[in-house]
Each structure stands twice: as C-alpha cells, then as structure tokens.
Fold:
Amino acid sequence: PDRGCTYRGIFALCYGLGLRAGEACGLKVGDVDVDRQLLVVRGGKFGKTRLVPHGPRIGDLLAEQLDRRHTSDASLGAEGPLFSFNGRRCVHPGSASQTFHDLVPALGLTVAEGVSPPTLHCLRHSFAVGTLLRWYRQGQDPAAKLFHLSTFLGHVDPASTSIYLTITAELFDEANQRYEVFAAPAWQQAPR
Structure:
C-alpha cells in the first residue's frame, strides 16, 4: 500500500530539491520541519548533514507523507522513517532507483540512439540545470550564485557542482542572450 505515493515523494525530492536517492530515502520523520519549510538532510555524501529549505509545493507533499505515516503508525516517533513500506526501515535507494528505471519506458521519452535512458540520479542533474536556467531568466548572475547551488546540493565547492551542469539548448540560448547584451556596446563601436 502507498507505494505510488511513497515513490512519488522520493522522486519529487530528487527532482525538486536535488537530493540524492539515498538522502531522500533516508529521511526520518523528525527531519521534516513543516512550519519552517526545512529539511534536515543527514548522512549525505561523506557523511555531511545540511539544511535544505523548500517551497510550498514540496511542503504540501511532505505534509501528506507525514500524515500517511502517522495514520499507518500512530506511535511513529521522530526517528521513524519518512518513506517506508514496512514501517520499520527506510525504502532502500536501490529499490527507488530500480522502480524509476522500470517506469522510464512508460514515460514515452525519446532517448537518442547511443544514449542511456535517464536514471533517478538524473533528476539531481535536472535540478541543477533548472536552477541555473531559472537564474538566467530572472536576470541574476549565475556565476555569483554558484556557491549557493553548491551548498544546497551538499558540495564543498562549485567544481563538484559543475559536473551536474550539462549545457542544454535552453541554457545555451540564455547564456548567448546574456553575452549579446554584454557585447553589444563593443559591436556598436567597432569600425566597419
């Protein structure tokens, strides 16, 4: 029961907050602060813990998951798993990854020949690229904010984050538009 809701929650956290599968699956009930819209992500890569703020849509999803867990186990404490099938253990990240892999064909995505189909970890990459794209579209300086993204993803420095920043057509267009605005004065002054 509730497998669909459980996996939906895990996938949403990987895509919407850029969490690793193990981080999303390993969340405990006490790691969710609904009032402050904050997650405590423990045991990330290299055992690091970080605070991850979230918006109202993720907040609603987390509140629903908490309600489901408390309904299935009224004695559930702060150390109880947020995502569980048996109420005692967290969903294994390998199970979440395999389920995502099994669902990909149903999505009808066009995957170019020679390219691997998306994995659950690709949602983390999509989050990073989407964040960068949003900053470009909002007129912000992505280079100045890269440390924010690195911290949010649990990286020590932007060099680790750069692996996630695949250049997409949309991102390339936004960067080109930014460069054209920057270079326009030089082009207008150039001798003809």
